[in-house]
Amino acid sequence: xxxxxxxxxxxxxxxxxxxxxxxxxxxxxxxxxxxxxxxxxxxxxxxxxxxxxxxxxxxxxxxxxxxxxxxxxxxxxxxxxxxxxxxxxxxxxxxxxxxxxxxxxxxxxxxxxxxxxxxxxxxxxxxxxxxxxxxxxxxxxxxxxxxxxxxxxxxxxxxxxxxxxxxxxxxxxxxxxxxxxxxxxxxxxxxxxxxxxxxxxxxxxxxxxxxxxxxxxxxxxxxxxxxxxxxxxxxxxxxxxxxxxxxxxxxxxxxxxxxxxxxxxxxxxxxxxxxxxxxxxxxxxxxxxxxxxxxxxxxxxxxxxxxxxxxxxxxxxxxxxxxxxxxxxxxxxxxxxxxxxxxxxxxxxxxxxxxxxxxxx
Length: 361
Known about the structure:
The chain is built from ten helices and 15 strands. The protein has helices at residues 15-26, 41-50, 60-64, 82-91, 106-119, 133-144, 184-196, 263-268, 316-328, 336-355, and strands at residues 6-11, 31-37, 55-57, 72-75, 96-99, 123-126, 150-158, 199-207, 218-225, 230-236, 246-250, 254-257, 292-295, 306-308, 359-360. The strands form two sheets. The chain has a nine-stranded mixed sheet with strand order 14-13-12-11-7-10-9-8-15. Strands 3-2-1-4-5-6 form a six-stranded parallel sheet, sandwiched between helices. Helix 4 packs parallel to helix 5, helix 5 packs antiparallel against helix 10 (336-355) and helix 7 (184-196) crosses helix 10 (336-355). The radius of gyration is 20 Å and the shape is globular.
């Protein structure tokens, strides 16, 4: 890509904005981080320290007041603000990237998609875990037919955080759209849909386990896909012993993979793609001892099956695709309609857990 880079306004500089979006935007050819919106003085200081050329605005209104100076808005603010801010950005004539979940309901997501289409603007949803190392490796195995016909997909995004941190992510107020079902659940459901397609029924269990917690922190979903695959998805902050990230069982073989993609940890440590010791070919690579195994009838715990090298994770690919979509007319990497399909599942899971029923879609 050549020419003047697209000027990006980033709304929100908490975990999502500072750890994920800002570094990835800054590392993407064709994009330039122009403005960060945060009213928090300490976060303003942090943004200026990390990106000396960035401008800082205290409110989204201040940003939208000079919409003609920007080419893309990225919304990484609390979940409850996603819909109103995305609406304001689209009505200001600006393409938008929204962190997941794009909305609290599938209907709201489809409403945003219709608004973007009406204005002829890009609306993309940041589902970065489509570019996790293990997910990319599993997609490769499936494309090769290495597992045969898949019967069951087990996916775990588990943590051991026995004490709540507080804040809106753990709020019991439904308008905050907190809890793990809509947080980590947005990732594991999206991955299941990408891999195995539409879902016909949903069963879920959501629990609040920790003292002082208000939102679900230990959640399980069982999905039946239209093609017959069953997905069992676990998201938890209360897991004292972590299970495998993936266990995928097919007619010919299974794939078992432990450990999380290293990119989040690298970004939290201040590393950036294409800069420093983790640059270029080193980005997203995990130690060989964490590689998964493919086999049939053997135990991966005792070294059974063959080692499957894990492909490098590639979060930078998301914003590279956004830049290509805006500059060259390439495809939207994650559409709002895809996000709405995931929200259909999450809403059904909420109903299933509340009413103790299996919900048919």
